[in-house]
Design a protein that fits this description.
Two copies of one chain form a homodimer.
Chain A lengths: L16 E3 L8 H7 L9 H18 L6 E4 L3 H12 L5 E6 L2 H12 L3 E6 L8 H10 L5 E5 L1 E2 L4 E2 L3 H9 L3 E5 L18 E3 L13 E5 L1 H8 L12 H8 L12 H17 L1 H21 L16 E5 L6 H12 L1 E5 L8 E5 L7 H17 L9 H10 L1
Parallel strand pairs in A: 1-12, 3-4, 3-5, 5-8, 8-9
Antiparallel strand pairs in A: 2-10, 6-7, 9-10, 11-13, 12-13
Helix pairs in contact in A: 1-9, 2-9, 10-12, 10-13, 11-12, 12-13
Chain lengths: 398, 398
């Protein structure tokens, strides 16, 4: 051993139960894929992996869009890729603003020199069809509408189908953030007339963070290819990236993250083996059990209408007298359970309890409720927290 | 097994010897790091990993720059991060243009609305101190100089030390692409007055592609923080990313690629355990043996002066009568060896034989020379190719 090595701290991360806003837990097959032999990014074997990733992404996005890829960056890079390619200086976009990620889309759009017409709602509320209609009437020059399908900061579950039909009628681009919903809840790119949609790998896909599933409709790609101004970003230029991913072209642009693409290849296989409908139903069922358990313990969900609440990220109000940070710290240190804190305006006010992908399992729901009961009792919080586990179990046995 | 699963192709990549322009081969410890349990990106355990990555990156970059991080994208994202944060519309930059990656820097600079003053040289040649001096005199309003330390398209090894001193005297920002040299050849950020430098993980660091080591001097960060215009990119905005990486801040920006950061954490440990000087010497020695072997077989290096040629990416001219693609195909299919084709203007004219990180080993040099001899004989190429292995071996025994 050389002298230097003695000071090098070895890597030995703890085994957490990941019930926050992502990353979620990872299936052993995905870990094994990560450790498989790296080959060259233009190796015929890797090109075949890329083909299969595209095919599998199309199945999960429920689309036939040729431009369907994994962007070589995290979910936020997927957002930036969708927006910087489509949006030109001087254009106008309507953006739903009811949480952190609508604000983030606005920020990216403004940096492109375009105007944002926000539809502002209270955090946790959804944007209605009528509100979109009004915004389109108020801002008739708008080029598109941006909505967040699954608002990770609030747990709001935005309906898209009717709004998609409307944007199609009015010839508006429909751009959707599906970072948290992809592979965990119904998302039909073609049926819902979505023109651009991006996600991340570390949510319901249960793959480590580092890639961004992205799909653009032929109509959206036509706009990208016929821009008046060049795309600001070279790294995220979809005309160049298309030449890299398109079968028969494979023109070098950048070196794809090989191991991460192995991981998404395997994670997508797990999704398709389970079946989309079965997977969505599993997310709904575990959420229902979690909510029953929490309510039996005296908690309230911060979004009361289950149809407007995400099944994979359950937002629960923190009652007066319960110390937010201390509870999360004890869950982490005593039970190796991570849950999500409130973000932005919701800091200290809600917990975000993730049940995404591999994390969405009956045993995790039960273990979490028991652990929370234990922590609250240890902290001598007033109340009877004993009913959570049995309330959750009765959902599974009904 | 559900019906869908029967059609899902399993992942089973071949075990290649990676002797192209990257990715290079990966140490088993790095594969094991990739497969370790993912934790949350704000988990105290992961924050400690980030701290150690920064510390290790600083040691390999030989810098004390606080802004030293792994960008959540590939080497090209590192390039874009360095340039989009520093460069403002209307500015002028001098760029060395002697291969693909100087051209790429120019392209990114032009997309920002800045002017490029190229120092054009033949591909494979280096840029001299005198040429930089003249360019600065010709373009006195320039804000900076951009050079590629290790031009991956040609194998040219650009000297930086004296040029760094000059840019410092003339108060120019010095921006360096070290994608292929980082952790494989001497690179002294502070001593050489480099203001911004980026790399990739899949070259001499022998980590899978997917992250970009990046460092900026305090002077460069001051320019970033005092820009007149906002940074175009939200994803690569170093003022936001700094708040995410800086100890004691850790403000959420995006979700870092956890597994890839585990991998770079381990790959950097391997570099520091070996020792920088020892590692650079290993790269030089294996390159010397490879070149001796190739020359004994009758090949010529496309850059004849060893001091101007990269030790980790050895550019060799393809003689008339040797079928480029067929030789590479046979090396890949019969021997599982990948070497690099020529890029751009050098397509069909050179091979780029990588000896990077874990790929830079005596046994690989010998195996490659023997495999090449075998392929050339099988193809009935005229010549005596039998002297390669012994010429290489005599370098090791001298």
């Amino acid at each position: 051993m050389s002298p230097a090595s003695s000071s090098l701290h070895p890597l030995s991360p703890p085994r957490r139960l990941l019930m926050g806003p992502g990353p979620s837990n990872i299936h052993p097959r995905v870990y094994r894929a990560l450790g498989m032999d790296v080959v060259g990014h233009l190796d015929p074997e890797f090109l075949a992996v890329m083909d299969r990733i595209q095919d599998r992404l199309r199945q999960v996005f429920q689309t036939e869009n040729p431009m369907t890829i994994s962007v070589s960056g995290t979910g936020s890079a997927g957002m930036e890729a969708a927006l910087v390619n489509l949006i030109e200086e001087g254009e106008e976009y309507i953006v739903g603003m009811n949480g952190v990620f609508g604000m983030r889309m606005s920020e990216v759009i403004r940096r492109r020199g375009a105007t944002v017409h926000p539809i502002e709602k209270e955090w946790g509320e959804i944007i209605t069809l009528e509100e979109v209609q009004k915004a389109i009437e108020d801002h008739p020059k708008s080029s598109g509408l941006c909505l967040v399908h699954a608002e990770t900061s609030t747990g709001a579950h935005q309906p898209l189908e009717e709004i998609g039909r409307l944007t199609q009628e009015r010839d508006l681009l429909f751009i959707v953030d599906a970072v948290t919903s992809f592979a965990g809840a119904e998302l039909k790119i073609d049926d819902w007339s979505i023109d651009a949609c991006y996600s991340g790998t570390q949510k319901c896909l249960s793959c480590p963070p580092g890639l961004a599933p992205l799909t653009l409709s032929p109509r959206a790609m036509e706009k990208v290819r016929n821009r008046k101004s060049p795309i600001d970003s070279w790294y995220l230029d979809l005309t160049l990236i298309d030449n890299y991913w398109a079968e028969g072209k494979r023109a070098y642009h950048h070196t794809a993250p090989i191991s991460m693409n192995y991981a998404i290849h395997e994670a997508l296989a797990l999704v398709l083996e389970e079946g989309l409908e079965q997977r969505f139903e599993r997310h709904r069922l575990n959420s229902k059990a979690m909510v029953s358990g929490l309510e039996a313990m005296g908690f309230s969900m911060s979004i009361s209408d289950a149809s407007q609440r995400l099944p994979m990220l359950n937002p629960v109000s923190i009652p007066e007298g319960i110390p937010d940070a201390e509870v999360r710290k004890r869950l982490l240190e005593q039970f190796n359970i991570e849950i999500g804190a409130g973000l932005g305006a919701f800091s200290g006010k809600i917990w975000r309890i993730g049940l995404m992908g591999e994390s969405s399992k009956q045993e995790h729901v039960i273990f979490f409720l028991a652990a929370l009961e234990s922590v609250l009792n240890d902290l001598k919080i007033q109340g009877d927290f004993s009913g959570g586990v049995s309330a959750a179990n009765s959902v599974y046995s009904s």
